[in-house]
Amino acid sequence: MSIRSFHPPVRTLMGPGPSDVHPRILEAMARPTIGHLDPRFIDMMDEMKALLHYAFQTQNELTLPVSAPGSAGMETCFANLVEPGDTVIVCQNGVFGGRMKENVERCGGKVVLVEDEWGMPVDPNKVAEALKAHPETKIVAFVHAETSTGACSDVETLARLAHEHGCLVIVDAVTSLGGSPLKVDEWNVDAIYSGSQKCLSCTPGLSPVSFNQRAVETIQKRTSKVQSWFLDLSLVMNYWGGGTKRAYHHTAPINALYGLHEALVLLQEEGLENAWRRHQNMHAALKAGLEAMGLHFIVPAAARLPQLNAIAIPEGADDIQVRSTLLKRYGLEIGAGLGALAGRIWRIGLMGYSASPKNVLLCLSALEAVLT
Ligand code: PLP
């Protein structure tokens, strides 16, 4: 057998994630591996925490990157906060709300599902009704930026509602962090998770999470053990907890963490608000071009995510053929529809380093060439 080194083709990633990885991040990840308890590595972990505080706009002590993809961040929130018998309101307006429901059920919780049409944001009125009908509810969980549809829900309003009923909130910010306004402390978010591969433009495989004091106290008051050893925060914190007493929990993905550190340094250099503005500007440019081609967005303008543009596949266009021609001829990846929207929409991502004028132009000209 003589299998050779793998050299991936050069692509432009404008799907639902991963996004194009910034060259500075790739360069950072190629630096020498050191030990996960090396004092220099521990200094880097402290910096990482400060950078995550900035990205999430929080001072939460319990803020760290879980050593696994966004799904593990999701599972970390549910596994630590939900105990058997707990009632959780899960808002579903796309694929990822459905995964939250699965998580609650696997933790032994009872789900009250609040459904909205795919492509619409979560409706706070429906959540208010569910809270009234289920006063025993402990947690309200929802997705900020639904990657499967491109809809943005109102975190601040939903969190306020949940707190009025004495509940905690769990927020999925996998696609929103770094791309859309997100203010964890100001909006009173109790537990939140994200992913490295979307608007942070890092490689996939890490999931920043943050828990406020109320969430920490809820975890401390648990009467049952967290059923996942790897995701049990009381154990993970022996490593990520800070101070001098860090102990081995698992071997950290050292080079991946160099990458996330660099991604967060880039975000800090650009400035959060500038990053949000850049995503919005690129979305406006893409939208103008798509609409000039006669293409339609499926999400109402007020709830549209700049970083995930979901457009209806025009009549007569062959979904798979268009996407594979874009890939073969232009090296351009756009996303297919997921779940109920499979075959009905394309998802064009403008995430992180991919949210650039060069990419907008490539996408518009390539799509136009393929569609006409
Ligand atoms: N939540 C949302 C909103 C997502 O878009 C994704 C991934 O696309 C996930 C969760 C899961 O993240 P990962 O694929 O990194 O496990």
UniProtKB/TrEMBL annotation:
InterPro entries documented for this protein: Aminotrans_V_dom (IPR000192), Aminotrans_V_PyrdxlP_BS (IPR020578), PyrdxlP-dep_Trfase (IPR015424), PyrdxlP-dep_Trfase_major (IPR015421), PyrdxlP-dep_Trfase_small (IPR015422), SP_NH2Trfase/AEP_transaminase (IPR024169)
Gene3D superfamilies attached to this UniProt entry: Aspartate Aminotransferase, domain 1, Type I PLP-dependent aspartate aminotransferase-like (Major domain)
GO MF terms held by the record: alanine-glyoxylate transaminase activity; L-serine-glyoxylate transaminase activity; L-serine-pyruvate transaminase activity
Cofactor names: pyridoxal 5'-phosphate
TM region(s), chain numbering: none
Pfam families: Aminotran_5
Stretch forming the signal peptide: none
Keyword terms of this UniProt record: Aminotransferase, Pyridoxal phosphate, Transferase
Domain Aminotransferase class V stretches: 33-337
PROSITE patterns: AA_TRANSFER_CLASS_5
Enzyme Commission number, as recorded: 2.6.1.44, 2.6.1.45, 2.6.1.51
Top EC class, one word: transferase
Family statement drawn from the similarity comment of this UniProt entry: Belongs to the class-V pyridoxal-phosphate-dependent aminotransferase family.
Protein name: Alanine-glyoxylate transaminase / serine-glyoxylate transaminase / serine-pyruvate transaminase
Organism: Methylocaldum szegediense
